[in-house]
Design a protein that fits this description.
With 223 residues, this protein is of the alpha/beta class. Helices cover 40% and strands 18% of the residues.
């Protein structure tokens, strides 16, 4: 049976540090690497394309703006042009559902596979709202993804309820309250989860070793 996969984000300022972290995270057991382009100092399309080529592993190219939890400060055209340049080398390209369609559609068209994402760092929207988000994401791209912020345990259950209706979605309830959703996701069909190595890039991320250990104890496998 195919095992549930762990993706580890790399958030470094220079290509050299990205490569060093990539090798370390692969050794620690990462199944996928998310290259956080927005963390790089002055990224350019050629630099990013070459970097992903040198990483030479299963990668997700991501370039977040501040409102989506990222650091990119250029224009939306500059941001998405970089993602398009990365698309030929990366296995997946992550683009936000709230990105304007004229930019988002070009990224999706250029990607081998696309992840359409949504983030809310203040709250967990209603079940109905999240269902509509995931439905639209699934229509637009290959993988639907959302990460939201719980105020109580009921909010974390909302995330699992969405997963029950829409398998193959990466659905995360962030922070301490939602930590368990990162482990329970595969029971509902999520293709992978996010874990940290070195430092966390999102609230509630567990490290690779802990994530793998908990999944093994729960005997969670796909198939």
């Amino acid at each position: 049976m195919e095992k549930y996969k762990i993706c580890v984000p790399i958030s470094e300022k220079t290509p050299e540090k990205v490569l060093k972290s990539a090798h370390s995270y692969i050794e620690q057991g990462a199944d996928l690497l998310e290259i956080r382009i927005d963390a790089l100092k002055s990224p350019t399309p050629p630099m990013v394309a070459q970097l992903i080529k040198e990483v030479d592993f299963i990668t997700i190219a991501t370039n977040r703006i501040a409102s989506e939890g990222g650091f990119f400060k250029g224009s939306e055209k500059e941001r998405t042009d970089i993602l398009i340049s990365a698309a030929d080398k990366a296995d997946y390209v992550d683009i936000e559902i709230l990105c304007k369609d004229k930019y988002r559609s070009k990224v999706i068209e250029s990607a081998h596979k696309s992840i359409i994402s949504f983030h809310d760092f203040e709250k967990t929207p209603s079940l109905e709202y999240l269902q509509e988000i995931v439905k639209k994401e699934s229509q637009l791209g290959d993988i639907a993804k959302f990460a939201v912020t719980p105020k109580n345990m009921g909010d974390t259950v909302t995330v699992l309820n969405v997963l029950q209706e829409y398998p193959e979605t990466v659905a995360i309830s962030m922070g301490n309250l939602g930590k368990y959703t990162r482990i329970m996701g595969p029971l509902f069909g999520a293709p992978f989860t996010f874990a940290s190595a070195g430092h966390s890039t999102a609230p509630g991320q567990l490290d690779i070793k802990t994530t793998r250990l908990l999944m093994e104890k729960l005997s969670i496998n796909k198939g």
